[in-house]
Amino acid sequence: MPRPTKQAPERGDARSRLLEAARDVIRQKGFTATTVDDLCKAAGVTKGAYFHHFDSKEALGVAVANYWSETTGALFENAPYHRPANPLDRVLAYIDFRKSLIAGDLAEFTCLVGTMAQETYISHPAIRDACAASILGHAETLEADIAAAMDARALTPGWTPKDLAHHIQAVIQGAFILAKATDSPASAQSSLDHLSRYIRLLLAAPRPKV
Question: How far apart are CA 18 and CA 116, in angstroms?
C-alpha cells in the first residue's frame, strides 16, 4: 500500500507519534531491526511513554498495522479511481492510481503491512493476522467493481471476484519486493503496467459464439 497522508498529531499525543514513527522507521529498517530506542527517538518520546502505550514490541506491531489500515483506508476511499462510470474502468483506474504512488524513496511508497508480514508470519502470528486483515480488507474493496465488470460482460469463469482482488494485491506486493531488490521503482511500475494489460484481457467481452 502507499504512503498515507501524514497527519500532524499534537505534541502531547505520544501514542500517535509512536505509530507514525513506527510506520516510517519499519518501512526503512524492517520490523526486526527496528528497536524501541529507534521509535522513541523518531517520535520524540521517552521509553516510559512508549511502555505506557505498548507493553511489548508485538503490541506495537499490531497497533501500527491497524493504524496503517485506518489511514490508507481514508486515502483510498477518497481517491479519484472511483469516478469512472464503467466498473472495468474503475478497476483499471485503481491500478493506475497505485502506479502513480510508486515514486520517490522506497520506504515512502512500499507497504508497511506487506513488509511486516514477510518478517513476522511465524515469529509474531498476531502481527501476521493484523497484516492479513489489512491487505485482504483492502482487496475486498475491489470485489464489487470486479463483479460488476464480470456481469457487464456476462463472464462466468472458474474464479471469483475475491480471487482476482487477491491476485491484484499479490502482484502489487510482489512489485514492491522487486523495487527493493533492484533499488528502483521502475520494476514495480512495469509490473503494474503488465497487471493492467492482464486485467483488460481477463475482463474483455467474451467472443460471440459462431
Answer: 16
Contact of 196 with 95, CB cutoff 8 Å: yes
Please tell me whether the overall predicted TM-score, pTM, comes out greater than 0.85 for this model. yes
First CA to last CA distance, the chain: 44
Splitting the chain (210 residues) into consecutive groups of 10 residues, what average pLDDT does each group show? 47 86 96 96 95 95 97 94 97 98 92 96 97 98 97 94 98 96 95 97 74
Contacts of 194 (CB under 8 A, 6+ apart): none
3-state DSSP assignment of residue 160: coil
C-alpha cell at 39: 521509535
Q: How far is residue 24's CA from residue 30's CA, in Å, rounded to a whole number? A: 10
The alpha carbon dihedral of 126, 168, 147, 210 has a sign of negative
Q: How far is CA 36 from CA 6, 50, 105, in A?
A: 21, 8, 23
Please name the residue ranges forming H helices in the chain. Answer: 14-29, 36-43, 47-53, 57-77, 87-100, 106-109, 112-120, 125-140, 143-152, 161-182, 186-202
- Stretch (H or E) spanning 45: none
